[in-house]
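User: We ran a pulldown and think these components assemble together. Before we commit to crystallization trials, I'd like a predicted model of the whole complex to look at. Sequences follow.
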Amino acid sequence: MNQLTGACIIGQSGGPTSVINASAQGVIQTALREGCITRVLGAAHGIKGVLDDKLYDMGQEDMAELDLLQYTPSSALGSCRYKLADPDLDDTDYKRILEVFKKYNVRYFFYNGGNDSMDTCNKISKYMQKMGYECRVMGVPKTIDNDLNGTDHCPGFGSAAKYIATSCAEVWQDAHVYDTGTVTVIEIMGRHAGWLAGSSALASRIGCGPDLVYLPEVDFDMDEFIASVREIYERTGKCMVAVSEGIHYADGRFVSEAETSATDGFGHAQLGGLAAMLANEIKERIGAKVRGIELSLLQRCGSHLSSKTDLEEAFLAGKTAVEAAVAGQTDKMVAFECDRSNGYSCVPVLQPLDIVANIEKKVPRAWINDAGNGLTDAFIDFVLPLVQGEPDTPRENALPRFARLKKVLTTDM
Amino acid sequence: MNQLTGACIIGQSGGPTSVINASAQGVIQTALREGCITRVLGAAHGIKGVLDDKLYDMGQEDMAELDLLQYTPSSALGSCRYKLADPDLDDTDYKRILEVFKKYNVRYFFYNGGNDSMDTCNKISKYMQKMGYECRVMGVPKTIDNDLNGTDHCPGFGSAAKYIATSCAEVWQDAHVYDTGTVTVIEIMGRHAGWLAGSSALASRIGCGPDLVYLPEVDFDMDEFIASVREIYERTGKCMVAVSEGIHYADGRFVSEAETSATDGFGHAQLGGLAAMLANEIKERIGAKVRGIELSLLQRCGSHLSSKTDLEEAFLAGKTAVEAAVAGQTDKMVAFECDRSNGYSCVPVLQPLDIVANIEKKVPRAWINDAGNGLTDAFIDFVLPLVQGEPDTPRENALPRFARLKKVLTTDM
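Assistant: Here's a predicted model for the assembly, 826 residues in total across the polymer chains.
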């Protein structure tokens, strides 16, 4: 084994999740204990913090506050949506990253994010190799969307799935309280993959879920949609529908975009609102009382409903990344191999960054029913283990007690 | 004491809450134990169930399922929004109610609801007195809006307040993750009273709450609103705003109605969306990136975030109603007298239905800051005790385990 001594940088990127900070905690606390890692630096707002030399010295933080990271939603170090150029076309950013790496003798780089972040991670890894600068680069996965390739599932998904299923079950109770007819449309995140919207079907398992679920994996047809809603509404007086924000027509147009290009009476563009748009369509065509609900940011930051399984796996992903890098691994992402055949087990493995970056994993068509408006048992069996367990969330005055970091910049020390 | 023997009816009415079923449980389980109450009947969809003779025999239910009622959001017996006529103008409904009461020898009537329901309760009570039919009538309060007169606060409010404060704190974390500017607008229920929107300020106490809070108690001025948002946004790069759905201009027009009378490009009426509308206004006038979030039904059915204090008080309200009625009381609503001077204590008392019905209790102007865009410490001190405590919510497969009632109709027995 090749012992490599130097500082490490941990950065977070892309949309937040409820448990991304558990992964950061796994990286930071493990790195602080590794003798060969001389300094643990947190990048402010992901790769932008490296480019701007805005790095926090994580060794200055209280361990008790770092312990609270796992219960703190969103990205504690700050996030970004910064896309690195192709280094063959423009290597300005890469040169700067190398310069900052050299300044702090950074020999370990951990990047905590989703699809785009694994692409960033991969590009940096390849550039450092090309330049002959020895730096071990590891991707730590996160995304509520669960669309990362090369892993059974992704940290962040289980907690969002649990939030969605629980909220759908509760809304179902509310939506069935009157003896008058109503149709409820719930809009769930997911532009290209339907893992999250599909998770609403967990609530159907306990008799309180959507009657119909629409994912981006199946082309959307408005007439068929209206016919399905009408049939259930006329038979039962109620209908609850869950839709991915990314549902699209056969020609590829997003259903939301197709309609929200309209402007209102003031000439303003209409904001978002796929749920409201579909609810309105149902009202116009079926005459039902409707309600559109958008779970919005709540579903990705609702850490009070985290899955303990997800939380522990998110921490494990960060810890594994550091241990593997110290042991000599580089150019990999931590992934999970799971076995559901006899209970549930999850083992961290390493995947080459190449096979992860820029590929979106969709819900298999076989896990969606033939009509394209519901999920099969195979989907449920896949998701159910990931939402298990209640974390012992610390509270102050009954409100969540989030980590309070000092965030001491190295340039201020 | 006058011992009165006969059946009782419990009905639920108005919008659901997270804990209204805890009150129903308090009524049902206490009534089932009282010797003078010969039969416990649950009205399907409130007073409509009485009018239609659709009554469930609650003695047929499993006690273990009744125990789960407190963890089950929304109204388990079904609700209604049925307004009884003035009996001097039209006594048809009252005659029918008396007929059904006589059919089952109903001598106790418990009505679990908010403002309108206490009016229903009051009218029935006065009618039965006028007709010389001995029946003890008790109101059991519920409303997330906390606008019932004659009580310190109302069951249902504390849990909704906790949901709102927790969700705002989580969204705050998410909304501050990027180093780019954003304005977030969160729309909260409350047409005429701002107790719920005000509760978002609890999150500000832990540093993760809205910068600005607007309640219906203060006339809204769009230009002042934009100026306040602009000042905070330009100074900090972020701004988070909480608004009551019921904010209105000085002339009384709701801000939402004033704008949503507009139609979109298809000639459809725009649906709801005060948050989206204000976010759009901010985008147009300030040029900020914006996000509008509507907490919608989630805030009133989010029982996974119930306050244990609220849950216990809701049960106590139901139990007290039965015990007081058996002891000879009638024509009253259970209310709370609280003392916050040395810790928090809450004692149930009885208030005449007359003084409760049809009066809306608003947030005192002195509890709102001078600028009309934030809450004072007095408001926080009032709300904070009501959100305390985590109930031990039963789960199955990590999802909530709601009560499953048999709902055996008397007419089917």
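The longest strand of chain A covers residues 106-113. That may be worth checking against your pulldown data before setting up trials.

User: Thanks, that helps.
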